[in-house]
Amino acid sequence: MTAPRLLGAPEVRPDIRPLDARRVAPASRVLIVSNRLPSTVRVDEGRVQLTPSAGGLATGLRGVHDAAGSTWIGWSGAPAELPSATRREIALRLAEVDALGVPIHGPEIAGFYQRFANGVLWPVLHDRDDHPDPDPDDWATYRAVNARFAAVVAEEARPGDRVWVHDYHLMLVPRLLRARRPDLRTGFFLHTPFPDSMASLPQRRTLLDGILGADVVGFHTPAYAARFGDAVRATLGRDVELASGAGFADDDGRAVSVHACPMSVDAAGFAARATDPRVIRRVQELRAAGGPLFVGVDRLDHTKGIPERLAAFERLLDERPELRGRARLLQLAVPSREDVPAYRELRARVEALVARVNRRFATLAWQPVTYVYGSVDEVELSAMYCAADVMLVTPLRDGMNLVAKEFVASRIDEKGVLVLGEHAGAAAELRAALLVDPRDAGELSRAYARALDMSPAERRVRMRRLRARVDAHDVRRWADECLALLGADLQASERRGPGR
Ligand code: ADP
Ligand code: G6P
Protein backbone atom coordinates (compact mmCIF):
# COMPACT_ATOMS: atom_id res chain seq x y z
CA MET A 1 0.00 0.00 0.00
CA THR A 2 1.36 3.41 -0.89
CA ALA A 3 1.13 6.34 1.45
CA PRO A 4 -1.32 9.04 0.34
CA ARG A 5 0.27 12.46 -0.17
CA LEU A 6 -1.29 15.80 0.38
CA LEU A 7 -3.19 17.17 -2.52
CA GLY A 8 -3.03 20.92 -2.21
CA ALA A 9 -6.49 22.28 -2.77
CA PRO A 10 -7.70 23.30 -5.18
CA GLU A 11 -4.66 22.69 -7.43
CA VAL A 12 -5.38 19.24 -8.71
CA ARG A 13 -2.35 17.49 -10.20
CA PRO A 14 -2.74 17.22 -13.96
CA ASP A 15 -2.22 13.47 -13.82
CA ILE A 16 -5.16 13.10 -11.42
CA ARG A 17 -8.20 13.38 -13.57
CA PRO A 18 -11.21 14.89 -11.87
CA LEU A 19 -14.22 12.68 -12.01
CA ASP A 20 -16.67 13.32 -14.75
CA ALA A 21 -20.12 11.84 -14.30
CA ARG A 22 -20.57 11.65 -18.07
CA ARG A 23 -17.79 9.06 -18.27
CA VAL A 24 -19.93 6.46 -16.53
CA ALA A 25 -20.84 3.64 -18.87
CA PRO A 26 -24.62 3.63 -19.38
CA ALA A 27 -24.88 0.06 -18.14
CA SER A 28 -23.07 0.79 -14.88
CA ARG A 29 -24.99 0.33 -11.65
CA VAL A 30 -24.70 1.77 -8.21
CA LEU A 31 -23.99 -0.84 -5.55
CA ILE A 32 -25.08 0.41 -2.14
CA VAL A 33 -23.22 -1.45 0.59
CA SER A 34 -24.24 -1.21 4.24
CA ASN A 35 -24.63 -3.53 7.17
CA ARG A 36 -28.37 -2.82 7.41
CA LEU A 37 -30.55 -3.48 4.37
CA PRO A 38 -33.76 -1.49 3.70
CA SER A 39 -35.73 -4.46 5.00
CA THR A 40 -34.84 -6.61 7.97
CA VAL A 41 -35.61 -10.31 7.88
CA ARG A 42 -37.09 -12.15 10.84
CA VAL A 43 -37.67 -15.86 10.80
CA ASP A 44 -40.57 -16.86 13.01
CA GLU A 45 -41.27 -20.59 13.30
CA GLY A 46 -39.77 -21.10 9.86
CA ARG A 47 -41.73 -18.21 8.30
CA VAL A 48 -39.71 -15.45 6.66
CA GLN A 49 -40.93 -11.93 7.37
CA LEU A 50 -39.50 -8.69 6.01
CA THR A 51 -40.07 -5.47 7.94
CA PRO A 52 -38.80 -1.98 7.05
CA SER A 53 -35.50 -1.37 8.82
CA ALA A 54 -35.32 1.30 11.50
CA GLY A 55 -32.79 4.12 11.51
CA GLY A 56 -31.80 7.03 9.31
CA LEU A 57 -29.48 5.12 7.00
CA ALA A 58 -32.24 2.75 5.88
CA THR A 59 -35.04 5.33 5.74
CA GLY A 60 -32.87 7.90 3.95
CA LEU A 61 -31.33 5.55 1.39
CA ARG A 62 -34.52 3.60 0.64
CA GLY A 63 -35.87 6.24 -1.74
CA VAL A 64 -32.47 6.72 -3.34
CA HIS A 65 -32.25 2.97 -3.94
CA ASP A 66 -35.64 2.94 -5.61
CA ALA A 67 -34.77 5.90 -7.83
CA ALA A 68 -31.25 4.78 -8.71
CA GLY A 69 -32.18 1.22 -9.62
CA SER A 70 -29.24 0.16 -7.48
CA THR A 71 -28.38 -3.16 -5.94
CA TRP A 72 -28.14 -3.01 -2.15
CA ILE A 73 -25.69 -5.40 -0.48
CA GLY A 74 -25.96 -5.99 3.27
CA TRP A 75 -26.89 -8.25 6.14
CA SER A 76 -30.42 -9.64 6.16
CA GLY A 77 -30.75 -9.30 9.95
CA ALA A 78 -31.03 -13.08 10.41
CA PRO A 79 -28.17 -15.41 11.36
CA ALA A 80 -26.72 -17.49 8.52
CA GLU A 81 -27.30 -20.77 10.37
CA LEU A 82 -30.71 -21.50 8.88
CA PRO A 83 -32.02 -24.45 6.86
CA SER A 84 -31.08 -24.13 3.20
CA ALA A 85 -34.73 -23.77 2.11
CA THR A 86 -35.14 -20.80 4.46
CA ARG A 87 -31.91 -19.25 3.20
CA ARG A 88 -33.11 -19.63 -0.38
CA GLU A 89 -36.42 -17.98 0.48
CA ILE A 90 -34.62 -15.09 2.17
CA ALA A 91 -32.43 -14.62 -0.91
CA LEU A 92 -35.51 -14.57 -3.14
CA ARG A 93 -37.39 -12.12 -0.94
CA LEU A 94 -34.36 -9.82 -0.81
CA ALA A 95 -33.94 -10.06 -4.58
CA GLU A 96 -37.50 -8.71 -4.93
CA VAL A 97 -36.25 -5.45 -3.36
CA ASP A 98 -32.98 -5.55 -5.33
CA ALA A 99 -31.00 -6.56 -2.28
CA LEU A 100 -28.29 -9.15 -1.86
CA GLY A 101 -27.56 -10.68 1.54
CA VAL A 102 -24.12 -11.15 3.05
CA PRO A 103 -24.19 -14.17 5.37
CA ILE A 104 -23.25 -13.50 8.99
CA HIS A 105 -23.29 -16.30 11.56
CA GLY A 106 -24.66 -16.00 15.08
CA PRO A 107 -21.30 -15.73 16.89
CA GLU A 108 -20.17 -13.17 14.29
CA ILE A 109 -23.30 -11.08 14.87
CA ALA A 110 -22.32 -10.97 18.53
CA GLY A 111 -18.64 -10.10 17.92
CA PHE A 112 -18.91 -7.90 14.83
CA TYR A 113 -22.27 -6.15 15.18
CA GLN A 114 -23.16 -6.18 18.86
CA ARG A 115 -19.79 -5.89 20.56
CA PHE A 116 -17.29 -4.25 18.22
CA ALA A 117 -19.49 -2.06 15.99
CA ASN A 118 -22.18 -1.10 18.53
CA GLY A 119 -20.51 -1.77 21.88
CA VAL A 120 -17.24 0.02 21.04
CA LEU A 121 -17.18 1.91 17.73
CA TRP A 122 -20.58 3.57 18.06
CA PRO A 123 -19.76 5.13 21.48
CA VAL A 124 -16.28 6.19 20.28
CA LEU A 125 -17.76 7.94 17.25
CA HIS A 126 -20.20 9.76 19.54
CA ASP A 127 -17.35 10.97 21.76
CA ARG A 128 -18.05 8.62 24.65
CA ASP A 129 -15.18 6.86 26.32
CA ASP A 130 -17.27 4.76 28.72
CA HIS A 131 -17.26 1.74 26.42
CA PRO A 132 -15.75 -1.66 27.18
CA ASP A 133 -12.21 -2.30 25.93
CA PRO A 134 -12.39 -3.82 22.46
CA ASP A 135 -11.82 -7.55 22.61
CA PRO A 136 -9.14 -8.80 20.16
CA ASP A 137 -11.42 -11.64 19.07
CA ASP A 138 -14.23 -9.19 18.31
CA TRP A 139 -11.83 -7.08 16.28
CA ALA A 140 -10.78 -10.19 14.35
CA THR A 141 -14.47 -10.88 13.68
CA TYR A 142 -15.03 -7.30 12.53
CA ARG A 143 -12.15 -7.71 10.07
CA ALA A 144 -13.41 -11.07 8.87
CA VAL A 145 -16.94 -9.76 8.26
CA ASN A 146 -15.58 -6.69 6.46
CA ALA A 147 -13.49 -9.02 4.27
CA ARG A 148 -16.62 -11.04 3.49
CA PHE A 149 -18.52 -7.90 2.46
CA ALA A 150 -15.59 -6.92 0.21
CA ALA A 151 -15.57 -10.41 -1.34
CA VAL A 152 -19.32 -10.31 -2.06
CA VAL A 153 -19.06 -6.84 -3.60
CA ALA A 154 -16.00 -7.82 -5.67
CA GLU A 155 -17.90 -10.81 -6.99
CA GLU A 156 -21.10 -8.88 -7.73
CA ALA A 157 -19.65 -5.73 -9.29
CA ARG A 158 -19.41 -5.43 -13.04
CA PRO A 159 -16.76 -3.23 -14.64
CA GLY A 160 -17.86 0.39 -14.43
CA ASP A 161 -20.20 -0.10 -11.45
CA ARG A 162 -19.96 2.47 -8.66
CA VAL A 163 -19.72 1.19 -5.11
CA TRP A 164 -21.13 3.29 -2.28
CA VAL A 165 -20.16 1.92 1.14
CA HIS A 166 -21.95 3.19 4.25
CA ASP A 167 -21.17 3.62 7.89
CA TYR A 168 -18.99 2.47 10.74
CA HIS A 169 -19.69 -1.25 10.44
CA LEU A 170 -17.77 -1.36 7.18
CA MET A 171 -14.81 0.99 7.57
CA LEU A 172 -12.35 -1.58 6.24
CA VAL A 173 -14.34 -2.43 3.12
CA PRO A 174 -13.00 0.35 0.84
CA ARG A 175 -9.37 -0.73 1.33
CA LEU A 176 -10.17 -4.45 1.16
CA LEU A 177 -12.25 -3.96 -1.97
CA ARG A 178 -9.50 -1.95 -3.64
CA ALA A 179 -7.11 -4.85 -3.14
CA ARG A 180 -9.54 -7.14 -4.98
CA ARG A 181 -11.01 -4.76 -7.53
CA PRO A 182 -8.79 -1.71 -8.14
CA ASP A 183 -10.90 -0.94 -11.22
CA LEU A 184 -13.97 0.03 -9.19
CA ARG A 185 -14.70 3.56 -8.11
CA THR A 186 -15.72 3.55 -4.46
CA GLY A 187 -17.31 6.03 -2.08
CA PHE A 188 -17.57 5.83 1.69
CA PHE A 189 -20.16 7.79 3.69
CA LEU A 190 -20.14 7.98 7.47
CA HIS A 191 -23.60 8.48 9.00
CA THR A 192 -22.32 9.16 12.52
CA PRO A 193 -20.41 12.16 13.78
CA PHE A 194 -16.65 12.06 13.46
CA PRO A 195 -15.32 12.36 17.02
CA ASP A 196 -12.90 14.79 18.59
CA SER A 197 -10.70 11.89 19.60
CA MET A 198 -10.31 8.23 18.73
CA ALA A 199 -7.62 7.80 21.38
CA SER A 200 -9.56 5.13 23.27
CA LEU A 201 -9.58 2.92 20.18
CA PRO A 202 -6.36 0.94 19.57
CA GLN A 203 -7.57 -0.07 16.10
CA ARG A 204 -7.94 3.51 14.83
CA ARG A 205 -4.98 3.32 12.40
CA THR A 206 -6.36 0.35 10.53
CA LEU A 207 -9.88 1.79 10.51
CA LEU A 208 -8.79 5.18 9.13
CA ASP A 209 -6.59 3.54 6.55
CA GLY A 210 -9.53 1.32 5.59
CA ILE A 211 -11.66 4.37 4.83
CA LEU A 212 -8.86 5.89 2.75
CA GLY A 213 -9.22 2.98 0.34
CA ALA A 214 -12.22 4.90 -1.06
CA ASP A 215 -12.00 7.50 -3.83
CA VAL A 216 -14.58 9.76 -2.21
CA VAL A 217 -15.22 10.08 1.53
CA GLY A 218 -18.38 11.84 2.71
CA PHE A 219 -19.59 13.25 6.04
CA HIS A 220 -22.74 15.08 7.09
CA THR A 221 -20.98 18.30 8.12
CA PRO A 222 -17.77 20.24 7.39
CA ALA A 223 -16.81 19.89 11.08
CA TYR A 224 -16.83 16.08 10.84
CA ALA A 225 -14.78 16.21 7.64
CA ALA A 226 -12.26 18.51 9.35
CA ARG A 227 -12.00 16.19 12.37
CA PHE A 228 -11.43 13.26 10.05
CA GLY A 229 -8.54 15.21 8.54
CA ASP A 230 -7.14 15.90 12.02
CA ALA A 231 -7.38 12.19 12.88
CA VAL A 232 -5.65 11.14 9.68
CA ARG A 233 -2.90 13.66 10.38
CA ALA A 234 -2.48 12.65 14.02
CA THR A 235 -2.92 8.90 13.66
CA LEU A 236 -1.41 8.09 10.29
CA GLY A 237 1.02 11.00 10.24
CA ARG A 238 -0.27 12.09 6.88
CA ASP A 239 -0.66 15.69 6.06
CA VAL A 240 -4.03 16.59 4.72
CA GLU A 241 -5.85 19.66 3.60
CA LEU A 242 -9.60 19.47 3.78
CA ALA A 243 -10.69 22.69 2.19
CA SER A 244 -13.32 22.29 -0.47
CA GLY A 245 -12.15 20.05 -3.28
CA ALA A 246 -9.09 18.87 -1.36
CA GLY A 247 -8.11 15.46 -0.23
CA PHE A 248 -5.24 13.07 -0.64
CA ALA A 249 -3.48 11.38 -3.49
CA ASP A 250 -2.07 7.90 -3.55
CA ASP A 251 1.32 7.44 -5.19
CA ASP A 252 -0.37 5.72 -8.08
CA GLY A 253 -2.17 8.98 -8.82
CA ARG A 254 -5.50 8.03 -7.32
CA ALA A 255 -7.26 10.95 -5.68
CA VAL A 256 -9.09 10.53 -2.36
CA SER A 257 -11.42 13.45 -1.92
CA VAL A 258 -13.24 14.38 1.27
CA HIS A 259 -16.59 16.12 1.28
CA ALA A 260 -19.40 17.32 3.53
CA CYS A 261 -22.85 16.44 2.13
CA PRO A 262 -25.68 16.70 4.66
CA MET A 263 -28.19 13.88 4.33
CA SER A 264 -31.83 14.84 4.27
CA VAL A 265 -35.39 13.57 3.91
CA ASP A 266 -38.08 13.24 1.26
CA ALA A 267 -39.39 16.74 1.98
CA ALA A 268 -42.14 16.66 -0.66
CA GLY A 269 -43.30 13.25 0.54
CA PHE A 270 -43.69 14.41 4.16
CA ALA A 271 -45.43 17.60 3.02
CA ALA A 272 -47.87 15.60 0.92
CA ARG A 273 -48.59 13.19 3.75
CA ALA A 274 -49.56 16.08 5.99
CA THR A 275 -52.67 16.52 3.82
CA ASP A 276 -53.61 12.83 3.85
CA PRO A 277 -57.10 12.51 5.40
CA ARG A 278 -55.90 9.63 7.60
CA VAL A 279 -53.15 11.84 9.00
CA ILE A 280 -55.54 14.74 9.55
CA ARG A 281 -57.93 12.46 11.43
CA ARG A 282 -55.14 11.10 13.65
CA VAL A 283 -53.91 14.62 14.38
CA GLN A 284 -57.37 15.53 15.64
CA GLU A 285 -57.39 12.46 17.87
CA LEU A 286 -53.92 13.14 19.25
CA ARG A 287 -54.91 16.71 20.04
CA ALA A 288 -58.36 15.91 21.36
CA ALA A 289 -57.33 16.20 25.02
CA GLY A 290 -56.30 19.83 24.45
CA GLY A 291 -53.29 21.36 26.16
CA PRO A 292 -49.75 21.68 24.80
CA LEU A 293 -48.32 18.55 23.19
CA PHE A 294 -44.58 17.80 23.26
CA VAL A 295 -43.39 14.99 20.98
CA GLY A 296 -40.19 12.93 20.84
CA VAL A 297 -39.46 10.27 18.18
CA ASP A 298 -36.22 8.31 18.41
CA ARG A 299 -34.56 4.98 18.11
CA LEU A 300 -33.98 3.98 21.73
CA ASP A 301 -30.29 4.87 21.80
CA HIS A 302 -28.06 6.34 24.49
CA THR A 303 -26.97 9.08 22.05
CA LYS A 304 -30.49 10.48 21.78
CA GLY A 305 -30.64 12.17 25.18
CA ILE A 306 -34.02 10.69 26.12
CA PRO A 307 -33.44 10.56 29.91
CA GLU A 308 -32.20 14.16 29.89
CA ARG A 309 -35.26 15.19 27.86
CA LEU A 310 -37.63 13.50 30.31
CA ALA A 311 -35.88 15.01 33.30
CA ALA A 312 -36.27 18.47 31.75
CA PHE A 313 -39.97 17.85 31.21
CA GLU A 314 -40.29 16.89 34.86
CA ARG A 315 -38.54 20.12 35.76
CA LEU A 316 -40.93 22.10 33.57
CA LEU A 317 -43.88 20.61 35.45
CA ASP A 318 -42.16 21.48 38.74
CA GLU A 319 -41.51 25.05 37.72
CA ARG A 320 -44.72 25.78 35.83
CA PRO A 321 -47.56 24.35 37.96
CA GLU A 322 -50.15 25.79 35.58
CA LEU A 323 -49.03 23.18 33.02
CA ARG A 324 -50.00 20.29 35.29
CA GLY A 325 -53.17 18.65 34.09
CA ARG A 326 -52.59 20.09 30.60
CA ALA A 327 -49.15 19.55 29.03
CA ARG A 328 -48.31 16.11 27.65
CA LEU A 329 -45.17 14.50 26.31
CA LEU A 330 -45.62 11.74 23.76
CA GLN A 331 -42.34 9.85 23.49
CA LEU A 332 -42.00 7.19 20.83
CA ALA A 333 -38.96 4.91 21.08
CA VAL A 334 -38.23 2.37 18.41
CA PRO A 335 -36.53 -0.76 19.83
CA SER A 336 -32.89 -0.94 18.82
CA ARG A 337 -29.89 -3.22 19.41
CA GLU A 338 -31.62 -4.99 22.26
CA ASP A 339 -28.82 -7.54 22.65
CA VAL A 340 -26.26 -4.84 23.50
CA PRO A 341 -26.10 -4.36 27.30
CA ALA A 342 -25.95 -0.53 27.16
CA TYR A 343 -29.25 -0.51 25.27
CA ARG A 344 -30.99 -2.80 27.75
CA GLU A 345 -29.79 -0.59 30.60
CA LEU A 346 -31.02 2.51 28.80
CA ARG A 347 -34.46 1.00 28.30
CA ALA A 348 -34.77 0.26 32.01
CA ARG A 349 -33.60 3.78 32.85
CA VAL A 350 -36.03 5.48 30.48
CA GLU A 351 -38.96 3.38 31.69
CA ALA A 352 -38.12 4.14 35.32
CA LEU A 353 -38.02 7.88 34.55
CA VAL A 354 -41.35 7.79 32.70
CA ALA A 355 -42.86 5.96 35.66
CA ARG A 356 -41.42 8.52 38.08
CA VAL A 357 -42.80 11.56 36.24
CA ASN A 358 -46.20 9.91 35.88
CA ARG A 359 -46.20 8.81 39.52
CA ARG A 360 -45.39 12.31 40.66
CA PHE A 361 -47.88 14.23 38.55
CA ALA A 362 -50.57 12.02 36.99
CA THR A 363 -54.19 12.47 38.02
CA LEU A 364 -57.20 10.33 37.21
CA ALA A 365 -57.89 12.59 34.24
CA TRP A 366 -54.36 13.27 32.97
CA GLN A 367 -51.07 11.48 32.43
CA PRO A 368 -48.09 13.71 31.61
CA VAL A 369 -45.92 11.20 29.69
CA THR A 370 -47.14 8.67 27.16
CA TYR A 371 -44.29 6.38 26.27
CA VAL A 372 -44.54 3.94 23.38
CA TYR A 373 -41.81 1.36 22.89
CA GLY A 374 -42.26 0.31 19.27
CA SER A 375 -42.40 1.33 15.64
CA VAL A 376 -45.29 3.14 14.02
CA ASP A 377 -46.35 3.31 10.39
CA GLU A 378 -45.91 6.39 8.22
CA VAL A 379 -49.43 7.72 8.83
CA GLU A 380 -48.98 7.63 12.60
CA LEU A 381 -45.48 9.11 12.34
CA SER A 382 -46.69 12.01 10.20
CA ALA A 383 -49.63 12.55 12.54
CA MET A 384 -47.27 12.84 15.49
CA TYR A 385 -45.14 15.40 13.66
CA CYS A 386 -48.20 17.40 12.61
CA ALA A 387 -49.82 17.26 16.05
CA ALA A 388 -46.77 18.49 17.98
CA ASP A 389 -46.75 21.96 19.47
CA VAL A 390 -43.13 21.37 20.41
CA MET A 391 -40.90 18.75 18.81
CA LEU A 392 -38.06 17.63 21.06
CA VAL A 393 -34.96 16.48 19.18
CA THR A 394 -32.24 16.65 21.79
CA PRO A 395 -29.53 14.07 21.08
CA LEU A 396 -26.30 14.31 23.07
CA ARG A 397 -24.54 13.72 19.76
CA ASP A 398 -25.99 12.67 16.43
CA GLY A 399 -24.50 12.34 12.95
CA MET A 400 -27.42 14.18 11.35
CA ASN A 401 -30.84 13.37 12.87
CA LEU A 402 -33.45 12.98 10.19
CA VAL A 403 -36.34 13.19 12.66
CA ALA A 404 -35.72 16.94 12.98
CA LYS A 405 -35.93 17.35 9.21
CA GLU A 406 -38.97 15.06 8.89
CA PHE A 407 -40.79 17.22 11.45
CA VAL A 408 -39.96 20.42 9.60
CA ALA A 409 -40.93 18.92 6.24
CA SER A 410 -44.29 17.88 7.70
CA ARG A 411 -45.25 21.32 9.05
CA ILE A 412 -46.88 22.84 6.00
CA ASP A 413 -49.06 24.77 8.48
CA GLU A 414 -45.88 26.64 9.57
CA LYS A 415 -46.76 25.96 13.19
CA GLY A 416 -44.89 23.93 15.76
CA VAL A 417 -41.54 24.70 17.37
CA LEU A 418 -38.41 22.61 17.01
CA VAL A 419 -36.19 22.32 20.10
CA LEU A 420 -32.93 20.94 18.72
CA GLY A 421 -29.79 19.76 20.47
CA GLU A 422 -26.78 21.73 19.32
CA HIS A 423 -24.67 18.57 18.86
CA ALA A 424 -26.90 17.06 16.19
CA GLY A 425 -25.52 17.35 12.66
CA ALA A 426 -28.87 18.88 11.71
CA ALA A 427 -28.11 21.87 13.98
CA ALA A 428 -25.50 23.05 11.46
CA GLU A 429 -28.34 23.66 9.01
CA LEU A 430 -31.47 24.21 11.11
CA ARG A 431 -30.30 27.41 12.76
CA ALA A 432 -33.85 28.73 13.13
CA ALA A 433 -34.69 26.02 15.67
CA LEU A 434 -34.40 26.68 19.39
CA LEU A 435 -30.87 25.33 19.81
CA VAL A 436 -30.06 23.90 23.22
CA ASP A 437 -27.34 22.17 25.19
CA PRO A 438 -29.01 18.76 25.59
CA ARG A 439 -27.22 17.95 28.85
CA ASP A 440 -28.29 21.10 30.66
CA ALA A 441 -31.67 20.32 32.27
CA GLY A 442 -32.24 23.97 33.20
CA GLU A 443 -31.55 25.21 29.68
CA LEU A 444 -33.72 22.45 28.23
CA SER A 445 -36.73 23.16 30.40
CA ARG A 446 -36.36 26.90 29.73
CA ALA A 447 -36.37 26.13 26.00
CA TYR A 448 -39.56 24.06 26.44
CA ALA A 449 -41.18 27.00 28.21
CA ARG A 450 -39.95 29.45 25.60
CA ALA A 451 -41.39 27.27 22.85
CA LEU A 452 -44.78 27.31 24.57
CA ASP A 453 -44.67 31.05 25.11
CA MET A 454 -43.47 31.90 21.60
CA SER A 455 -45.77 34.17 19.62
CA PRO A 456 -47.50 32.68 16.56
CA ALA A 457 -45.64 35.20 14.39
CA GLU A 458 -42.22 34.08 15.63
CA ARG A 459 -43.16 30.40 15.20
CA ARG A 460 -44.15 31.09 11.63
CA VAL A 461 -40.98 33.00 10.80
CA ARG A 462 -38.79 30.28 12.29
CA MET A 463 -40.69 27.44 10.63
CA ARG A 464 -40.56 29.18 7.26
CA ARG A 465 -36.79 29.44 7.51
CA LEU A 466 -36.48 25.83 8.58
CA ARG A 467 -38.73 24.65 5.78
CA ALA A 468 -36.86 26.66 3.18
CA ARG A 469 -33.66 24.88 4.16
CA VAL A 470 -35.14 21.36 4.15
CA ASP A 471 -37.04 21.93 0.90
CA ALA A 472 -33.92 23.16 -0.84
CA HIS A 473 -31.69 20.38 0.53
CA ASP A 474 -33.83 17.28 0.41
CA VAL A 475 -32.62 13.69 0.21
CA ARG A 476 -32.70 13.81 -3.55
CA ARG A 477 -30.19 16.64 -3.57
CA TRP A 478 -27.97 14.77 -1.10
CA ALA A 479 -28.03 11.67 -3.30
CA ASP A 480 -27.40 13.68 -6.46
CA GLU A 481 -24.37 15.35 -4.90
CA CYS A 482 -22.91 12.15 -3.49
CA LEU A 483 -23.52 10.11 -6.62
CA ALA A 484 -22.11 12.81 -8.88
CA LEU A 485 -18.90 12.74 -6.82
CA LEU A 486 -18.89 9.01 -7.28
CA GLY A 487 -19.36 9.39 -11.01
CA ALA A 488 -22.88 8.05 -11.06
CA ASP A 489 -25.88 9.91 -12.35
CA LEU A 490 -29.20 9.43 -10.60
CA GLN A 491 -31.14 10.93 -13.49
CA ALA A 492 -29.55 8.52 -15.96
CA SER A 493 -30.52 5.65 -13.65
CA GLU A 494 -34.08 6.92 -13.55
CA ARG A 495 -34.17 7.07 -17.32
CA ARG A 496 -33.06 3.44 -17.40
CA GLY A 497 -35.72 2.61 -14.82
CA PRO A 498 -35.34 0.74 -11.54
CA GLY A 499 -33.77 -2.68 -11.37
CA ARG A 500 -31.40 -2.23 -14.31
P1 ADP B 1 -30.95 7.25 13.65
O1 ADP B 1 -30.46 6.99 12.29
O2 ADP B 1 -29.86 7.37 14.66
O3 ADP B 1 -31.97 6.26 14.11
P2 ADP B 1 -32.39 9.51 12.53
O4 ADP B 1 -33.19 10.55 13.23
O5 ADP B 1 -31.44 10.04 11.53
O6 ADP B 1 -31.67 8.66 13.66
O7 ADP B 1 -33.34 8.50 11.77
C1 ADP B 1 -34.35 7.82 12.45
C2 ADP B 1 -35.38 7.32 11.44
O8 ADP B 1 -36.18 6.34 12.07
C3 ADP B 1 -36.28 8.41 10.96
O9 ADP B 1 -36.53 8.24 9.58
C4 ADP B 1 -37.56 8.21 11.77
O10 ADP B 1 -38.74 8.55 11.08
C5 ADP B 1 -37.55 6.73 12.04
N1 ADP B 1 -38.15 6.42 13.36
C6 ADP B 1 -37.66 6.75 14.56
N2 ADP B 1 -38.44 6.28 15.54
C7 ADP B 1 -39.45 5.63 14.94
C8 ADP B 1 -40.59 4.89 15.39
N3 ADP B 1 -40.83 4.69 16.69
N4 ADP B 1 -41.42 4.37 14.47
C9 ADP B 1 -41.17 4.53 13.17
N5 ADP B 1 -40.11 5.20 12.67
C10 ADP B 1 -39.26 5.73 13.55
C1 G6P C 1 -27.88 4.57 12.74
C2 G6P C 1 -26.67 4.03 12.03
C3 G6P C 1 -27.09 3.05 10.93
C4 G6P C 1 -27.99 1.98 11.51
C5 G6P C 1 -29.17 2.60 12.26
C6 G6P C 1 -30.06 1.57 12.93
O1 G6P C 1 -28.62 5.30 11.85
O2 G6P C 1 -25.92 5.12 11.48
O3 G6P C 1 -25.96 2.45 10.34
O4 G6P C 1 -28.47 1.13 10.50
O5 G6P C 1 -28.67 3.49 13.25
O6 G6P C 1 -29.30 0.73 13.75
P1 G6P C 1 -29.19 -0.83 13.51
O7 G6P C 1 -28.19 -1.28 14.51
O8 G6P C 1 -30.56 -1.37 13.72
O9 G6P C 1 -28.74 -1.06 12.09
TrEMBL record:
Lineage top rank: taxon: Bacteria
Any single GO BP term: trehalose biosynthetic process
Pfam families: Glyco_transf_20
Gene Ontology MF, one: alpha,alpha-trehalose-phosphate synthase (UDP-forming) activity
Family as reported in the entry's similarity comment: Belongs to the glycosyltransferase 20 family.
Classification via PANTHER family: BCDNA.GH08860, TREHALOSE-6-PHOSPHATE SYNTHASE
Protein name from the UniProt record: Trehalose-6-phosphate synthase
Organism of this sequence: Roseisolibacter agri
Classification of source organism: Bacteria, Pseudomonadati, Gemmatimonadota, Gemmatimonadia, Gemmatimonadales
